[in-house]
UniProtKB/TrEMBL annotation, chain A:
The keyword Transmembrane applies. The chain crosses the membrane at residues 25-47, 59-77, 89-109, 121-144. This is Uncharacterized protein. It comes from Lysobacter firmicutimachus. Keywords: Membrane, Transmembrane, Transmembrane helix.
From TrEMBL, chain B:
Pfam families: TPR_16 (PF13432), TPR_19 (PF14559). This is Tetratricopeptide repeat protein. It comes from Lysobacter firmicutimachus. The keyword Electron transport does not apply. Keywords: Membrane, Repeat, TPR repeat, Transmembrane, Transmembrane helix. SUPFAM superfamilies: TPR-like. The chain crosses the membrane at residues 242-261, 273-293. SMART domains: TPR (SM00028).
Length: 157, 306
């Protein structure tokens, strides 16, 4: 019988999906280049693949990203309609949505990066995420050219 | 068995083989999870690897199992210093001092606490007291050397570091202090050898990497500039890093919007190119930096008869 080994709570948990795990840099770049929706989906999957111990907090951040972006867009729309946000300031105000998306993206990246380093240390072999990043970036442009509800498009783009 | 394993882990830790020490401790704690000393030593190891969250948990577990252990309080204090919870660290150090007023290791802890607070003179006084209490311990002398260097007394710092290295040529902190002294004296090649040797001993040690970076910064202004930028970005918490990076991005975005809204479209292309250049530089420079570090490490050979 193998001797039991003490497990530290920040170590990744074994997962059947671990052969699909990638360096979280790839989901982060996808979020920047192919859009928020693709990046978040990949972050969520990668969290499960890595067996990340902070998976719960990662999913909460993901929800904050989506719900926060919807709330901000709705608020800016309401302010604009009420005439409180002049048209020339709208571009500046929309930067808040980009900031929220990037800030939560960075937070997700940092949470997974710590887990990824440990996962690699314990012998995990990461996949190369570059082909999927290129594919997502090319596909995203075509996808976002289709007819989408404006709010959904702004959240996922 | 546990005594032997603990001694082995301590030896690994003492020689800078932190990962090996962690492996031994995890196996030991798998068999006996109630060994306070093993939890405390594990906290020290995790601290070295910057896994602060679990280091704090391990120190807390050690204290829970043995509330009257100097070693457990010391582990909790050093973890608290690393997390910038300095008052908490002081409480643990005071508790440890009450348990053993003449322990040099507690003076060492106070020296590190005052260093974190920026009270250099008080840190120096505690380091001297630690050396008086245990004159044969090389770690305290190396810390004293580092503090003497910090306050600008390079002669004393170099002499102390050389003393330590004569007795233990692989003492990481002394190697780094000597490297910094040599760099300050303009002996860049000697500094490079010491830096590379320190990195070979522990490739993840912060002091060793800082010295190596300082040497590289002296030799290559371009990579040095990246290193300084990187050091500034990562000097505090991760949140601060993210805020700084996002701030830079937002400034760029605001600049682009302001230029186009004020009819200065011809400046948007140069600004975009500047931003792209900055992104490319911060993307490529780390790779170049670490490649040159690896090359450097391959070149370093100890002088025969050292």
């Amino acid at each position: 019988m193998a001797a039991s080994v003490y497990r530290l709570p920040d170590e990744p948990l074994p997962s059947g999906l671990s052969r699909y795990a990638v360096d979280p840099l790839w989901p982060m770049l996808t979020l920047m280049l192919a859009g928020n929706g693709f990046g978040l989906a990949w972050f969520a999957f990668n969290g499960f693949a890595l067996g990340s111990p902070t998976r719960g907090r990662e999913l909460a951040l993901l929800a904050l990203n989506l719900a926060g972006a919807i709330a901000l867009l709705w608020l800016l729309g309401a302010l604009s309609q009420a005439g409180w946000l002049p048209r020339q300031y709208m571009e500046y105000a929309l930067l808040s949505v980009i900031t929220l998306k990037l800030a939560t993206g960075y937070a997700l990246y940092m949470m997974q990066q710590r887990c990824f380093e440990l996962w690699e240390y314990y012998g995990g072999m990461a996949r190369n995420g570059l082909p999927l990043l290129i594919l997502a970036t090319l596909f995203a442009r075509r996808l976002f050219d289709l007819q989408w509800p404006a709010l959904l498009r702004m959240v996922l783009e | 068995m546990s005594r032997h394993a603990l001694a082995l882990a301590r030896r690994h830790y003492g020689h800078g083989q932190v990962d090996q020490a962690i492996d031994v401790l995890l196996r030991l704690l798998g068999e006996d999870p109630d060994l306070a000393e093993a939890h405390a030593l594990l906290a020290f190891c995790l601290l070295k690897r910057k896994r602060l969250h679990v280091a704090a948990l391990e120190a807390a577990r050690a204290l829970e199992l043995e509330p009257d252990s100097v070693y457990s309080h010391l582990a909790a204090a050093l973890v608290a210093i690393a997390r910038r919870r300095l008052s908490e660290a002081e409480t643990h150090l005071n508790a440890a001092r009450e348990l053993d007023p003449a322990a040099a290791v507690i003076e060492d802890g106070f020296a590190r606490l005052h260093l974190a607070w920026g009270h250099d003179e008080r840190a120096l006084a505690h380091a001297r007291r630690a050396c008086e209490l245990e004159p044969d311990d090389l770690d305290y002398r190396a810390l004293l050397a580092s503090l003497e260097f910090r306050r600008g007394d390079r002669g004393t710092a170099e002499a102390l570091a050389r003393e330590v290295l004569e007795l233990d040529p692989e003492h990481l902190e002394a190697l780094c202090v000597l490297g910094h002294c040599e760099l300050a004296a303009g002996r860049v090649d000697d500094a490079r050898q010491h830096a590379a040797w320190a990195v070979q001993l522990d490739p993840m040690d912060e002091q060793a990497l800082t010295l190596l970076a300082a040497v590289k910064a002296r030799r290559s202004p371009l990579l040095g500039l990246w290193w300084r930028f990187q050091s500034y970005l990562t000097a505090g918490s991760r949140t601060r890093t993210v805020v700084l990076l996002l701030g830079l991005f937002l400034l760029y975005q605001i600049g682009m919007i302001a230029l186009s809204q004020n009819g200065l479209q011809r400046w948007t292309l140069p600004l975009s190119l500047l931003w792209l250049g900055f992104c490319a530089y911060t993307w490529i420079a780390p790779g170049l930096f670490w490649r040159s570090v690896k090359k450097e490490l391959q070149q370093v050979r100890l002088r025969p008869g050292f």
